[in-house]
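Researcher: Good morning. I'm working through a list of sequences from a screen, and I'd like to move beyond sequence-only analysis. For each chain I'm collecting a predicted structure so we can compare shapes side by side. This is the next one on the list. No need for commentary yet; just the structure.
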Amino acid sequence: MPVTNTTITPTLAATFVALIVLQLVALTLLPRTQGFTNPGITAVMLTFLGVSYWLLARMIRSGANLGILIPLMSTIIPLATIAIGVLRYGESASGIRIGLLVCACVLVGIASRF
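Model: Good morning. Structure tokens for this chain:
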């Protein structure tokens, strides 16, 4: 079991940002896979997703606190995915939808502190 690391190093921060970016790129490509029937885009999307999880595993192995990483990811990725859906795919973004998601993200953040 790795020792939990409470220090955020530049390498750890860069790895986390890369992990988030890779997951967002993968999620952006997901509709273009056409339900995994487009093999080229599907392979690219799965590669991005796989590398992001590999980075997460490396961060955990280096001692990063899983109890902080997952709640952070659980707040950043859904909010960014809604922005991508609205800006890239023209999805609707009602105030209630965004408000509920922001409240849920705040609750996840609060729960991760206890």
